[in-house]
Structure formats: C-alpha cells, structure tokens
Amino acid sequence: VQLQASGGGLVQPGGSLRLSCVASGNIESINSMLWYRQAPGKQRDVVAFIGGGRTNYRDSVKGRFTVSRDSAKNTWSLEMNSLKPEDTAVYYCNAISRNGGDLGWGQGTQVTVSS
C-alpha cells in the first residue's frame, strides 16, 4: 500500500485545514487508518482513528477534528477546525490491516498554526 498525504499549510489560530491521504496498491487490505502527528522534539502521537465503522480521537482534538473515508476515491481525510498553535506538527497517515499489521505511512504533511 502506498499513501500520499497532502493538505497541510500555514493557518491562523481558529482556522481550518483538511488533510487528505490517498491510498494506492492493495486497497482492500486496509482495515483502518490512523492519523498521527509529531511536533518538533516530541514523540509521534495518535490523533485519530477510523475503521470498522468506528472513529476515535485523542482528547485534545475531540470536537475539533473529524476523520472520514471516501471509498470511491480511496481517500481518507482529517478535517481540522478551530486550530490552535499546539496543533502545529507534521501529520502522518498510517494504514492498518485486519490483523493489526502496519501497511504503510504517508510522507507527512506540515501543519503550522500561527498568527
């Protein structure tokens, strides 16, 4: 599975961005998708999960971020609203197989929230 992430950029506090992760290859093997972020000097943390008809979010983004899938376009998206400076990070998508195996990572897209 190959993943192509895009959609990052510079946005003011309170603004919005929509990240996309387009998958190619053995799409049928993808059971779920995780979105991670990594800020400078910090560990990579899970931000959101979508799979098996469920979604889940880390507490700090609940109510502001929404993860979705467009099966027709093989695209997973992360809609981010009410962005805060602490959301600044490189964001990655990560495809997971039915047995929990790592199928691959997107290349990362930079999100910077600053006035």
In short:
By secondary structure, this protein is mainly beta.
Structure description:
With 115 residues, the protein is mainly β. The chain contains no helices and 11 strands. Strands 2, 4, 5, 6, 9, 10 and 11 form a 7-stranded mixed β-sheet that branches. A 4-stranded antiparallel β-sheet has the order 1-3-8-7, with no helix packed on it. The mean pLDDT is 97.
Main beta-sheet annotation: 7 strands, mixed
What is the alpha-carbon Rg in Å?
13 Å
The percent of residues in helical segments reads under 10%
Average per-residue pLDDT, rounded, comes to 97
List the helices and strands and how they pair.
Layout: E1 2-6, E2 9-11, E3 17-24, E4 32-38, E5 44-51, E6 54-57, E7 65-70, E8 75-80, E9 89-96, E10 102-105, E11 109-113
Parallel strand pairs: 2-11
Antiparallel strand pairs: 1-3, 3-8, 4-5, 4-9, 5-6, 7-8, 9-10, 9-11
Key descriptive features of the protein:
four-stranded antiparallel beta sheet; seven-stranded mixed beta sheet
